[in-house]
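Example complex used in Figure S2.
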Amino acid sequence: MQVLGHKSPLRPWLLLAPALGVLGVLLLWPLARVVMISLQDYGLRQIASGESNYIGFDNYAAIFGDSFLWTVVLPNTIGFAVACVVLTVVLGTAVALFLNNLGTLWRTVCSTAIMVAWAVPAITGTYVWIWIFDPLNGLVSSVLDSVGLIDPATTNWFTERLSFYAIATLNVVHHGFPFVAITVLAGLLTIPKELHEAAMMDGATPWRRFWTITAPILRPVFAVVTILSTIWDFKVFTQIYLMPGGNGGNKEVFNLGVWSYIQSFAQGKYGMGSAIAVLLTLILLGITIVYMRTLFKEEEL
Amino acid sequence: MSALTGTPSSTPPTAGRAGRTVAASIDGSAPRPPQALRVKARKRPLPTAGKVVGIVALLAFALFPAYWMFSSAIDPEAATRGARILPAGVTWDNFVTVIDDGGFGHYLRNSIVVAIGAVVFSSVLALLAAVAVSRFRFRFRKSILVLVLMVQMVPLEALVIPLFLQMRTLGMLNSLLGLTIVYIAFSLSFAIWMLRGFVAAVPVELEEAAYLDGASWGRMFWKILLPLVAPGVVATSVFSFITAWNEFIFALTFLQQSAKYTVPIGLQKFFGENTTDWGAVMAASTLITLPVIVFFVLVQRNLSSGLTAGSVKG
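Predicted assembly (615 residues):
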């Protein structure tokens, strides 16, 4: 009973109050506000006057009625996210299985190296990939030019939608696979070795052992890394915005995040930009709810 | 953790045949001897040929961009480098250029000020909140944890519009303080989630012993809990620092005078004005990247265990 006395019912709320206050003012209230702005024709005039100008769901109607959403923005956003998630999870898992089979020394060396790949900031990593694929003097175009595959004077990968996104995918996968590899490796280390040894004695091939032992045990781990990667890859902004044409010069390469930002801050149509941002948030919310379900099934909070 | 001490080289993985690293290891370890020799094989200090190929491929893939960045930064003829794998020479001129002419000395200072401000406040707030959710049982506790998780999913693109308007009204658009306040909020939920694991790992019995000795809650917190979660606070702080250091979209939107730029915006503007000066752009990138890599590798163990503490059992 002595101990319970220290657990007064008010104390947790006192400890939580500052953090909840900050989250409320800087995250929840802005979220409510972006929804309100998305229901207005909010432009530079409204910014100056501070007046509201509600127009109902007109911004949403305009977005959904725009073929640009269906032919460019959504295919870019979804196709890019799916490609990145699949490649990130497959590559990360392959690397984790490989690391799991190395001795301690080499495993440490390799995981430190992939930590470096993880640590390189999105902004500087993106500039390095731009430099590597630079049409004039970049590494890739020089190599391809020297073997006669391309003419650098007429080749620019950043102007074509598909090659633009191929480079962006390489950038994001390279940045994202270490998280999957390290997390899956942590899971692999918890699997009792006896399971694999018993299966080996029964003559199971490594491929079969992966699908009958490793995959079922690590199902929750795979669920978490897949869903987290999906959430991250849907809202990629920096890596697209910084590539040539990504900041508004080439509408063909817009994704939801970039479209929202350009509408707001380049065109001054904050209402329209907010509506696009709300759409992106709702998609992420859906994925997040799936994430929560997975998480709470596995763990008691 | 037994797997850490040594792995039988006769269990090659095959799951991701897509990766050349893995495919290579299958070839290399296929003719391994059967069960009886396994113990001996386990002690072999050198990896098999297939594994060597795998290790080389993995290291090359993982490190190449960082290598290309740094080697271009010290290359006196970086702009015409093409496919030269080694730099043409070693020079520090590019670094001098970006610090003296590019203003990066100034941008680095701005970034440090903002990041440290965000780290101090978010760590304190997150630690208090983490103690609340992992040490107390109270109504709405689970709802608060769900909230903390949920806000991490909110896209910054959705927050930047209302916060831009808000900061504009408050006249804080061009101020490092405004940016710091926003960064506190962004690192907070992740920091709470991560610290929660560290606080929960401290045995409750230690706290109870302190109470039996007559300590108050505050005294217990300072003398028992804080020293024990200090490594977790350090790891969390490093992560918050990196978040603030790397943040792009808010800095891009809020900061309009070069005197206030943080390093990501400094780099973006510098690239806009010196598009073909790749040596200088890579030197600036190196200045931004190096502290992050050092910090990140230092706390890697804590970070990955903290990241997975909430999501993975075991």
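Residues 1-43, 307-314 of chain B have pLDDT under 50 and may be disordered. Chain B has two domains: 2-58, 98-309.
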